[in-house]
Amino acid sequence: MAGCVARRALAVGSRWWARSLTGARGPRPLCVAGGAGAFPPAATATTRRHLSSRNRPEGKVLETVGVFEVPKQNGKYETGQLFLHSVFGYRGVVLFPWQARLYDRDVASAAPEKAENPAGHGSKEVKGKTHTYYQVLIDARDCPHISQRSQTEAVTFLANHDDSRALYAIPGLDYVSHEDILPYTSTDQVPIQHELFERFLLYDQTKAPPFVARETLRAWQEKNHPWLELSDVHRETTENIRVTVIPFYMGMREAQNSHVYWWRYCIRLENLDSDVVQLRERHWRIFSLSGTLETVRGRGVVGREPVLSKEQPAFQYSSHVSLQASSGHMWGTFRFERPDGSHFDVRIPPFSLESNKDEKTPPSGLHW
């Protein structure tokens, strides 16, 4: 079939994208369907010889937004790289990379599990490996289409005033793993709609990618480095449900003559199987260096009980925890329900809550 034109619909999250492949090395335009729910969702790329009008609702038009590039197997993406998120389907742009340590319990050494440790849970030897993540901006046009599967205001900070519990968020800021990046190029000088895009990036057609960091981006990154930094990633799979946890230290506040340390943690749930399951309950154990052990049980997460299916296999959210000690540990389980009503527990990989030893002034928002 050499020389023929094949069309491929890439369905991710609740958005459908289409690209056409012209020959083996020809251009591959990236198209986006306008309007919410333009197509029924699907989880994987499906090859189609033709993409006819019957494959999409009447009145919905695919608009070309760029041309796909070959994903990088080695090396990092540069500041200004445009991409499509392979799981949640949104358009975004890379701001800068983070080098994290990935602790994957699925590939842990075959050493036998250790006895119960002082934190109250069993552990096995897990060696971390370096893994690249990226700080990115999400295109505001895509936020309504992913809000049911991934929070678009998940990167939060402690506010700079007397209320020790006050938080603020930067909408459309996210962390993306290297393998979730589907890179593309665009001739549009402002291809991503986000209030910070033109404040952080400058168009320079002589560069590749043609968007370079402004001084404001470098200053913002340096100023907020302790609160943005992604250092550890924890992952574990139980019965084909993979749980990934990324903790972030947020800072310390004084409350009622004591110090309160805050962390946020981002959790991604992925169904690696074709069976439909629904998250019903969460069970957390939180150990503090002060010696306290707290148990938290509840329905769902962040007020939701997400369904993970072949069509929509992933859900991502962020939450917060505070301790009256500078460090601690968290672990637990999520209880899922199958269509036949049976339940099973999925392990949440244990992770540390560590404070920054050289804590500086907390972030002060977007003021430079």
Could you characterize what this model shows?
Residues 235-360 form the ApaG domain. It is found in: Mitochondrion matrix; Nucleus. One of its GO terms (molecular function) is DNA binding. InterPro entries: ApaG_domain, ApaG_sf, Hemimethylated_DNA-bd_dom, Hemimethylated_DNA-bd_sf. It comes from Nyctereutes procyonoides. The protein has 368 residues and is mainly beta. It folds into 2 domains: 65-106 and 127-229, no CATH class; 237-361, Immunoglobulin-like (Sandwich), CATH 2.60.40. Helices cover 6% and strands 47% of the residues. It contains 3 helices and 23 strands. It has helices at 143-146, 197-200, 215-228; strands at residues 5-12, 15-22, 29-33, 45-48, 62-68, 82-85, 91-104, 129-138, 156-158, 167-169, 173-177, 181-185, 201-203, 211-213, 232-238, 241-255, 258-271, 277-288, 293-299, 307-308, 314-323, 327-337, 343-354. The strands form 4 sheets. Strands 1, 2, 3, 4, 5, 6, 7, 8, 11, 12, 15, 16, 17 and 21 form a 14-stranded mixed beta sheet that branches. The longest helix has 14 residues, at 215-228. Mean pLDDT is 80; it is low at 1-25, 35-57 and 113-121.
Write the layout of secondary structure elements.
Layout: E1 5-12, E2 15-22, E3 29-33, E4 45-48, E5 62-68, E6 82-85, E7 91-104, E8 129-138, H1 143-146, E9 156-158, E10 167-169, E11 173-177, E12 181-185, H2 197-200, E13 201-203, E14 211-213, H3 215-228, E15 232-238, E16 241-255, E17 258-271, E18 277-288, E19 293-299, E20 307-308, E21 314-323, E22 327-337, E23 343-354
Parallel strand pairs: 7-15
Antiparallel strand pairs: 1-2, 1-4, 2-3, 3-5, 5-12, 6-7, 6-12, 7-8, 8-11, 9-10, 13-14, 15-16, 16-17, 17-21, 18-19, 18-20, 18-22, 22-23
Organism: Nyctereutes procyonoides (Raccoon dog)
Subunit structure: Interacts with PCNA and POLD2. Interacts with SSBP1. Interacts with PRIMPOL; leading to enhance DNA polymerase activity of PRIMPOL. Interacts with POLH. Interacts with POLD1; leading to stimulate DNA polymerase activity of POLD1.
InterPro entries: ApaG_domain, ApaG_sf, Hemimethylated_DNA-bd_dom, Hemimethylated_DNA-bd_sf
